UniProtKB/TrEMBL annotation:
Species, as recorded: Corynebacterium amycolatum
Domain Core-binding (CB): 58-142
InterPro entries in the record: CB (IPR044068), DNA_brk_join_enz (IPR011010), Integrase-like_cat_sf (IPR013762), Integrase_catalytic (IPR002104), Integrase_recombinase_N (IPR010998), Tyrosine_recombinase_XerCD (IPR050090)
Protein name: Site-specific integrase
GO MF entry, a single one: DNA binding
GO terms under biological process: DNA integration; DNA recombination
Domain of life: Bacteria
Amino acid sequence: MASIKRYKKSKGYGWRVQYRAPDGTSRTKQGFRTKDEAQAWADKNATTIRDGQWISPTVESAAVSSLWAGWEKSQHHLAASSMKALDASWRVHVKPRWGHTPVSKVHPADVQEWVDELAGKRSPTIVHRAYGVLRSLMGDAVRYRMVRANPCDGVRLPAKRGKKMYVLTEKQLRTLADEVSKYRSLVLFMGWTGARWGEAVALTVGDLDLDTGRATISKSASTIGGKVSVGETKTGHTRTIGIPRHVCEELKADVRGKLPGALVWTNARGGHLTTPSKRSWFHSAVARCRAADEDFPGVTPHDLRHTAASMLIASGAPVTLVARQLGHQSAKLTLDTYAHLFDDQLSDVVGMSWSAAN
């Protein structure tokens, strides 16, 4: 039962409420102008305590920045490159605006205003990333019972502009592989299996079973500031992928005589390959291919992943298998990413159905 009493102020009188918090401590809330006002607050506070919704005023006043260190430590499942991008987003966009704000003072309207302002200056990708950081931090605030609801929920975000997706034909993939010469098997491996760049260059000989056509993807190499660090895969999970027989034959020649712990592909010094720059061997090879064939697309290493997905889908592989091969966390992600390729397959099915009917 709360106690409501009048107290003397420098000018006049006010009313205060003294109550017992769920943690057993005696707490006071004052500043009410009338007894009825104090009683209304006391009744509402008693309801929140009874319903298990009470939040300590001390915790409620904690700044958003107090959540960052714990949140950052909990992101151990992310690749180093992904964490670097999120850290930059926090320092450049989130912390300056929200770092000193008490978690209880982060309101939906203010978050929407911030998102709209940021969208007027930066790309949708940057806006989505910054919003994602704040939303995740406030999600922790909800989980730690610092606030009752996430003020970022329901905020309208700018539409993302999809990146141009280039896909090579089998002939173009072979042409590019021939052009890179030294890393021919790497290009073929990525173009046929769909492994991410970081996953491919982190592979050791022991990760390959070329007799059965399998590769174990358990780690990923990220390039940060010109240096390579090896950690978990993008999803934090290990998976086994299939390797086409002709790619296995290419790989057998490359790994012959190497120890199980040796890298499959290395730079000139025997270390991990770094992500190709615009002037690297990869882009130079693409430029030569384009000079010889005006229809050759300006692919990046990541487009080899799209190429593999395209060939898997064209072969009639079920979406669940494609998702597993690519390391997608769900078949929905695969469908969302490659919807246009599945649409093409659907057209082929319809065409075959009409041919059969006729």
